[in-house]
Amino acid sequence: MEAPKKEMDRWIAAHWSQMLARWKELLCLGGTANEAQAMERVAGQLQQWFAEECRCQLLETGPKCPKLLVADWGPWGRQDDQGNQSDRNGAACPNRQENRIGEGNALRRVVLSGHYDTVFACGQEQQRVRLDEEAGRMEGPGALDMKGGIIAAMYAVKLLSLLRAEGVCVRILLAGDEETGHPGSRTAELLAEYSRGALFAFNLETGFLNADVCIGRKGTAECYLNVKGVQSHPGNDFARGRNAILEMCSKLEEISALTQVEKGLTVSPGRIQGGSAVNIIPDACSAALDLRFSSMADFEQLQRNIHSICAVPGIEGTSVQMQLGELLPPFETTDGVRELLRFVQEMARELQLSVPQGHYRGGASDAAHIGNAGVPVLCSMGVSGEYSHSEQEYALLSSLKDRIKLIAWAIAQSARFGGTDEV
User: Do residues 122 and 36 lie in contact, with contact meaning Cβ atoms separated by under 8 Å?
Assistant: First the structure.
């Protein structure tokens, strides 16, 4: 099918100044997930903008946790002044409250996801935000990760009206605590709940510089070890001592040997602490390890292996306790993900855009939670650039145009996608 490329380009050109202004304004708001007032300001501004086309709500995720923005675009569209839902032609529709999408009707449902928090504290943004149209760059914290992706989602939805997209609805899900891994919140659970039933999803995280996309990410977990030994004097009572540091070193060597790089399974000790003085045999030692894995089956086996190692003391009289911290599941490459990649590649060809290739990444993302709900998802569908999480962070302006067109065209042509995953 021939895509209306010229019409799309003209529409984007007519809205370009507004896109850039909103992108820059969003960067200036900024803030981390731990800054409640900053997150409220960002979420409030996004709700106002998305409400131009969508029915919006901000969901509580937990005590003192940033809210999850849910914006629905489709036949029930915007609210009127009395709070009733209406379709794009103004026909009144019942106010729908269901969470699962795609239930009870034949509409195709697509999810666009992302996050509005950054790793930079409030106040660090405005001085570094810079729009350089001559160089074709938006610079500043969050420009790439991932305020640009939010703007792409916002205007892709607006573009759907030009494309006369029928029989399709879109749900936008934006988290406020992605960078911290959703500690103490229900965000991960809500992302899965509000995505379930969708035909496919795009997670608008940081894009590759060459416009490629991510089709799989490792899961990650923190593992904490605590060794208990026996304290004694190394000169007068050496034999009674049970050196917790030596036992920990032995255990770390055994556990690290579980690494299988070829399977995407790695164990990396990142911190160790023990002892109080050089002339005391230490009775305590703690360590923190980073675990990475490509599937939950691999993680469960790794967990069992670590437990087995810890259960057998190397130094008689010592003991080891293991505790797991925050767990982010892997974004696994399913048949549905592979089919979605092929579909997006075809959409890119029709638009005469760079055809994205699929890659794996080691860092975790919220694509995993959507994938675990049985929804095929592509990650890194946001704008392209470099140096996220640094003072040199920037995004390419041209990539915003390309992503808006690709996302909107894929949604408009979603009837041509046939891939599904089973939960």
Answer: no
Burial class of residue 208, CB neighbours in 10 A (0-12, 13-18, 19+):
middle
For 399-416, what is each residue's pLDDT tens digit?
999 999 999 999 999 999
Strand order in the sheet with 200-203: 55-59, 68-73, 168-175, 108-115, 200-203, 377-378
Interior/surface letters 69-106, b for 16+ CB within 10 angstroms, e for the rest: bbbbbbbbbbeeeeeebbebeeeeeeeeeeeebbeeee
The distance in angstroms from the start CA to the end CA of the chain is 32
Rg of the chain on CA atoms, in Å: 25
Q: What is the pLDDT of residues 136-172, one digit of tens each?
A: 999 998 999 999 999 999 999 999 989 988 899 999 9
Chain segment 75-119, per-residue pLDDT in tens: 644 433 343 444 433 333 333 334 444 444 568 999 999 999 999
User: Who's near 335: CB < 8 A, 6+ residues apart?
Assistant: 419, 421
Give the separation between CA 423 and CA 418, rounded to whole angstroms. 16
